[in-house]
Every structure is written in structure tokens, then in C-alpha cells.
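The instructor's notes for this session suggest beginning with a concrete chain rather than abstract definitions. Hand out the sequence below and ask the class to guess, before any prediction is shown, which regions might be ordered.
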Amino acid sequence: MKNILKSGLLLLAMQAIFVACQEDEIETYHGPDAVNLLIQRKDSAEFSFLSAAPSLQEYVFEVEVQIQTVTQDRDRVVNLGIGSRTTGKLDTNFEVAQSVTIPAGEVSTILPVKVFKKGLKDIEGGLVADIMVEPSADFVAGVYGKIKLVFSGDFPINWYSSTGDVGAIPYMWGKCTKAKYEFVYNYIGTIDLKQWSGWDYNPIIAMQNELNGELDRIATETGKRVKDDDGSDMWFSPTT
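After discussion, reveal the predicted structure:
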């Protein structure tokens, strides 16, 4: 009986030593922390000067530079660069710093991206500012290590709401085009669709019917259908 007990204790001791050795072999990461670039928890955003007062000549996006890992008790630097999706010219069409500092003990800081209204209409498709995290001694790019900002002096190519969420509009009005947005703007008098954003289908469908009714009225009066960007007859529906 004593021999069996001794054998059991010896086996347990050997197992403990084996687990301890395995733990010693576990590799841990000691490199730079990761950081993300976000606006309202998204990695892209769009702004059109048509949604603002005519006197507005520049607009500033406030990008949150957010630590993905842990805080530290010292200031840390995030390096930034311009990605390949960028159109226009840095310091001519938009301004952004080459680096920002996240203060000691903080989890984030704000990176201002300023865009100028002048010259935007000359950039086909609008201005894209592709901002990305560049490796530094303190940080590498996180899961959302780059952000795409789109600015336009013309009608946007995506439905827009100042609430940050257009809800069910794309599902009921269909794909956004510049021609469609111009038609909506001329009919309702604003580019901001916050009154119809969200997931209550009733007001969205009601406005959809109004817009299509206006298209029919114009066709009856002029004998011609209003055309979309691709030359097809404009219509607001989930499939157009």
C-alpha cells in the first residue's frame, strides 16, 4: 500500500514539473502596442459640403486614435502616413499631421483631418484621404490601422445622415448615385437624411413613394423620364 502511495506521489510530482516546464516555454509578445483609427466606431466616413452652409470653406474630421492594447505611464507617439487610396494633394486639398501623441495613462487622442472646399469639384469622384498607422517604437497598426475619409464638393455617392447611420434607406431607395442624390436634394431641400434614417420603414417608404410620384409627374409633363448616372430611367426601389 505504501509503495502504491509513493508511486502516486511521484507521478504527481513529475506531472507538476512537466507543466512548469511547458509554462516556461510559452512565448509572450513584448513588441509595440497596437492602435486603431476610428470615427464613431467605424473605419470610414464621408462628408459633403452640400450639407453645410455655403460660407463653410473647410471641414475638420476628428479621428479617434485608440489604443487596442494597454495604457502606459508615459507619452507615446503614433506615426501616420498616407495610403494608396488617397486622391488629391496633401497640404493643398487636405491637412493631417505626420504623428500624434497619446498622453501617459490615456487610451486615445484626437487626430484632426482638415479638408478644403476649394478645388474639390476638380477631383473626379471626390477627395479620398486614406490615413494609416505607420510602425513606430511605441505602436504598430491595429485591426483598424487605417481609415478612409471621403470629402465631396458635389453630391455624395453614399446616402448621408448627420446621425451617422442611414438605417434602411439603401434597402428601400436603392443604390445611391449622384443623380439620385441631386433629385432628392432638389425635392426635400437638404442633403441630410436624418429625418428618414433609422429602421422605421414607414417614413422611408412614404418618402420613396413621394420621390417616385415626382418622377412620374415630371415624365407626364415633359414626356421624358429623369435619367440616372448610367443613363437608365431613375427609380427609387430596393433593386435600382
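Then share the key points. The chain has four helices and ten strands. Confidence is low (pLDDT under 50) at residues 1-6, 8-12.
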